Amino acid sequence: MPLALLALAVVAFGIGTTEFTTMGLLPQIADGVGVSVPHAGNLVSAYALGVVVGAPVLTGIGARIPHKRLLLLLSGLFIVGNTASALAPDFGTLFAARFVAGLPHGALFGVGAVVASRLVAPERAARAVSKMFLGLTVANIVGVPAGTALGQHLGWRSAYYAVAVIGLIALAALAASVPDQPRGEQSGIRQELRAMGNKQVFLGLATAVVGFGGFFAVYSYLVPMLTHLTGLSDSSTTLVLALYGVGMTAGTLIAGPLTDRALRPTLYGGLALLAAALVLFYFTVHSTVPALLTVTFIGAMGALITTPVQMLLMAKAKNAPTMAAASNHSAFNLANAGGAWLGGLVISAGWGWASPTLAGAVLALAGLGLALVSSRLDRGSHSEPSSTSGTPLHTGTEQAAAER
Predict the structure, then answer these.
(1) For 176-223, how does the pLDDT look when each residue is reduced to its tens digit (9 = 90+)?
(2) Where do the Major facilitator superfamily (MFS) profile domain residues begin and end (predicted)?
């Protein structure tokens, strides 16, 4: 693994840690700033809103800035947002700080994915991108539990300080290891926006929002499902979430090679298997061992989707892939919000704690349908190339990357 990929993985690790640690520290944060726990939950929404807004806006603003310099600027904003979160004296200031901390999230992943794809041979581009995403999945296993434990023992502010330190380490690693990658003469906000107008980019983002929404419909209510239906104690749920992270790591590891070999079939298979796993969870949730195995598999299939969607968007955006790659993470945050809303809706309707699994399966199948529509449009226009080699992510002029 090039050292630059490791540096990008550290960035992803910091992002994953700051995004999910807040959820584990809501009671401590609520006490610290004098609000109720449900009110403190709005901090999670503030971060997500920052991601949705920041991904297209910051990549648009930085459309002519060389990728390495842009990565460093975005990392600096990440450090500022988390330091401000640690120093916030009241809820209003903390809300604003979490919004700022979320702004560089999607842009860092988008620019990082483009940079990662150019660090290796074209036929290994998806593997490089998946290695960057490993930082996010490892954060769920190590970073989030460690940040939560740190915040519980030393105060919630210490968790944000720790994330800011991770950001400093990532900034130094990026500065030392990422090579200069100048933008092409045709780069700019107009080119990025024109690429975003491609119907295949729109369908790719819609696939992410709908299909991955099925994953979040269950993930958002996993803890109450396991305590109410499986009979696990509250103290056991941390281990279960770690198992979820293990599954996501395994899915990310296999996503890269599979996507390099066959992009669209990997996406189809991931969505179909995710839907099947969610239906299976409806029946296994009442037994401890089958439930834990199914949870791990759901995590793997959710992660398996991420890399092919990212590579598809970068391919269809052609010579201006950065905004499309960044907007993918806005799409995932919309999936988070939409999946959680639908899961809560079916529970509130009285369909039971297991009902989000079936709602999530419907979303995953709907995402599969959108992916199939996109493929049919490709074949209809005779525009689908034959392999992932020769991608414009490497030259800026060759034919768009493709799926076998």
Answers:
(1) 998 887 765 555 666 766 767 778 888 999 999 999 999 988 887 887
(2) 2-379
Cα–Cα distance, 42 to 37 (Å, whole number)? 9
For the entire predicted model, the pTM comes to 0.80
CB contact set of 147 (below 8 Å; sequence gap of 6+): 17, 18, 21, 24, 25, 159, 162, 163
For residues 71 and 2, what is the distance between their CA atoms, to the nearest angstrom? 17
The rounded distance, in Å, linking the Cα atoms of 140 and 144 is 5
Whether residue 355 sits in one domain with residue 221:
yes
Q: What is the DSSP letter of 179?
A: P
Confidence of residue 393 (pLDDT cuts 50, 70, 90): very low
Q: How many domains does the chain have?
A: 2
pLDDT score recorded for residue 184: 58
Residue 107 is encoded by which pair of tokens? 């842009």
Question: What pLDDT, on a 0 to 100 scale, did the predictor assign at position 387?
Answer: 37
**The total number of residues written for the chain in this structure:** 404
Place of tokens 């050292």: 3
What single-letter amino acid sits at 219?
Y
